[in-house]
């Protein structure tokens, strides 16, 4: 009895400790991948014949929710569900409602990043679960080009998903990976398209993660140069908005658009990193561009919460200062972006 009480007190103390790394950075944001599978094959993300994890290697719905509870107890305020494509997971509804139940219990925001293909079916469920904003990845507004980039994706399905999400009252930010010789001529049309619908837009530099079938350096587009080009045509007003994330935001005065730039190659902002990344298998990475990780699945599977806390401490003790992406050197890590979901 006595022992149980002491144990419970120990656990509570563990839970009250924040997630602070050796550089003093407080982790309050988690990217939570719930599957590495996807119904698209974006050329910069993964090869056509991608090898996925066996299903029993993935955390179950209950393990994901238990992990969410532990993370929130350790001070995590925002969780972004991602993948692979999170909406292809069959128990997505249960996962969202389980994590959504943490809102107001320490969790401030539950968000999701999706390719939009399955969004029409799930938009109302997301809203119901407490999601208020989503990111939709969209690299082209031209059906043929979209199909080429995604190796077969149906742009109409994505548009339908976006409309459903709007209709359900979800705020939308479009993520566009800027690719030389592929979609650079669509940056301004995308800005106008997003502005016309009240969406935010974030442009992203392609990152060297995992082998794909093409040389990413051929497609790399410096967003520094892109921003200078945009500034020749529009007034960009730097926004104070700091999310401790890697994006820098501007207001495009003429369009009333909030425009973000994620520039891991031309300028990284790792010094203020506030996040860790959970893969669908329960591996947790301290950095997008490094291999340092801990494996939470065994402990989650036997519900050993104390061990999960210890492993999180271990992760934070070794969290790297930052990544070291160089596009010309090729992949900095073997895993693809789809493992940790960006
Ligand atoms: N499937 C969902 C989607 O596409 O939104 C979620 C996962 S996806 C890996 C998350 C984001 O990472 C997407 O916006 C995608 O464009 C981006 N991404 C994937 N591979 C990338 C890479 N190598 N460099 C930069 N961004 C990448
Ligand atoms: Fe799938 Fe997203 Fe990767 Fe495209 S970027 S292949 S949609 S996981």
Explained architecture:
With 342 residues, this protein is an alpha/beta fold. It contains twelve helices and twelve strands. Strands 7-8-9-6-5-4-3-2-1-10-11-12 form a twelve-stranded mixed sheet. Helix 2 runs parallel beside helix 3, helix 3 packs parallel to helix 4 and helix 4 packs parallel to helix 6. The longest helix is centred in the first third of the chain and has 15 residues. The protein binds S-adenosylmethionine and iron/sulfur cluster. S-adenosylmethionine binds next to strand 3, strand 5 and helix 12.
Indicate the percent of residues in helices: 25-40%
Strand order of the largest sheet: 7-8-9-6-5-4-3-2-1-10-11-12
Mean pLDDT: 92
What general form does the structure show? globular
- What would you call the structural class? alpha/beta
Q: How large is the radius of gyration?
A: 20 Å
Q: How would a textbook summarize the main sheet?
A: 12 strands, mixed
Q: What small molecules are bound in this structure?
A: S-adenosylmethionine, iron/sulfur cluster
Poorly predicted sequence stretches spanning 5 or more consecutive residues: none
Distance between the termini: 45 Å
* Annotation, overall tally of beta strands: 12
Fraction in beta strands: 15-25%
Query: What is the N-to-C order of secondary-structure elements (H for helix, E for strand)?
Result: HEHEHEHEHHEHEHHEEEEEEHHH
How many separate helices? Answer: 12
């Amino acid at each position: 009895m006595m022992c149980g009480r002491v144990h419970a007190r120990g656990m509570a103390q563990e839970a009250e400790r924040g997630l602070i790394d050796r550089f003093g950075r407080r982790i309050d944001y988690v990217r939570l991948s719930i599957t590495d599978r996807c119904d698209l094959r974006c050329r910069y993300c993964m090869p056509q014949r991608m090898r996925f994890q066996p299903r029993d290697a993935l955390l179950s719905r209950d393990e994901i929710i238990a992990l969410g509870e532990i993370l929130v107890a350790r001070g995590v305020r925002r969780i972004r569900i991602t993948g692979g494509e999170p909406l292809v997971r069959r128990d997505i509804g249960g996962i969202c409602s389980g994590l959504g139940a943490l809102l107001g219990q320490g969790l401030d925001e539950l968000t999701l990043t999706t390719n939009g293909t399955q969004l029409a079916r799930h938009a109302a469920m997301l809203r119901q679960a407490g999601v208020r904003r989503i990111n939709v990845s969209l690299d082209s507004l031209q059906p043929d080009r979209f199909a080429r980039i995604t190796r077969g994706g149906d742009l109409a399905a994505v548009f339908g998903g976006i409309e459903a999400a709007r209709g359900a009252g979800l705020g939308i930010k479009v993520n566009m990976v800027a690719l030389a010789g592929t979609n650079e001529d669509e940056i301004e049309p995308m800005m106008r398209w997003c502005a016309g619908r009240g969406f935010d837009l974030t442009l992203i530099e392609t990152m060297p993660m995992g082998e794909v079938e093409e040389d990413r350096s051929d497609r790399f587009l410096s967003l520094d140069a892109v921003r200078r080009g945009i500034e020749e045509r529009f007034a960009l007003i730097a926004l104070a908005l700091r999310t401790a994330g890697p994006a820098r935001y501007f207001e495009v005065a003429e369009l009333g658009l909030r425009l973000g730039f994620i520039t891991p190659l031309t300028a990284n902002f790792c010094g203020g990193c506030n996040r860790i990344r959970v893969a669908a298998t329960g591996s947790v990475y301290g950095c997008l561009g490094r291999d340092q990780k801990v494996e939470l699945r065994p402990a989650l599977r036997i519900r050993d919460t104390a061990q999960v806390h210890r492993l999180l401490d271990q992760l934070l003790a070794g969290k790297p200062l930052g990544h070291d992406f160089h596009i010309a050197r090729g992949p900095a890590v073997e895993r693809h972006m789809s493992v940790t979901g960006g």
